[in-house]
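REQUEST FORM: STRUCTURE PREDICTION
Request ID: SP-0412
Submitted by: Lab K.M.
Chain count: 1
Length (residues): 311
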Amino acid sequence: MISTWLTERLGLTLPLVGAPMGGRAGGRLAGEVSRAGGIGMLGAARYTTAEWIAEESAVARERGGGRLGIGLMTWSLDADDTLLGAALEQRPDLVSLSFGDPEPYVRRAHDAGALVCSQINSLEDLRVVESAGVDFVVAQGGEAGGHTGHVATLPLMQMVLEATDLPVVVAGGIGSGRGLAAVLAAGAVGGLVGTALLASPEADGPEYSRRRVVSAGGTDTVYTDVFDRARSQPWPTRWGARVIVNDFTRRWSGRPEVSDADLAASYDKDDPDLGVVNAGQSAGLVAAAEPAHDVIRRIAADAEELLARLR
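STATUS: Completed
RESULT:
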């Protein structure tokens, strides 16, 4: 077994965290990551409800042996922190407060008994969340699926590890044991996995999203804001999203002159050629729709074998 600060503090057997992917990471997916030995997180996106958090938390705990993580978008809490209150009512083991300054919310999460982490995309982000008092950081590289920054995982990881004494988990491109072994060997305490789980039957979302992830290669993603604009999702402009290319992105990405109204008129969430599939470059490593439990266990086992060779 691989033992790190992360496994010891959260009582895990594997140093892996399931990404809190909005619209994809519900109770079934989070629970299966926890059942495998890591900790899964619900993706409590801006459009979710307190009722959804309660219902999905119960599912995650039942499947995952009691462990629970919940991820929230900090920028949306600044306008309405209802979802944070709903999340803390579930007494999660881990709360992720990402994409913004978590300072107003960290003490509340700690008082509820949770560890707090924040995903960061730059050294400037690191200084903000350090000052806020988070317990660890997630260095999320630009290869990651969904909303992310612009610095690639490898240089970001090195910069963050050199610049902080906080424990560091790494996200962005970890889709196999080789990826996990690499970040652990570099000094990280774990890996956060998202794209590798998107084809799993426990992931929420339309069936076509699973097929798209399986068929996508490493060059079949694009970094864009067109889906946020089409769906009136008011994400801060500094964060675009990495998605799988389709007819919608081919037509509209890179055209800032196009109106949000035109984008909305063209968008169709039920059409694989016009709907969004958030996924990272590690989609090129997803070859089949495997259960999330099996994916997590294999990544960890392969990493352990590779690290044993180094030793």
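NOTES: The mean pLDDT is 97.
Reviewed by: T.R.
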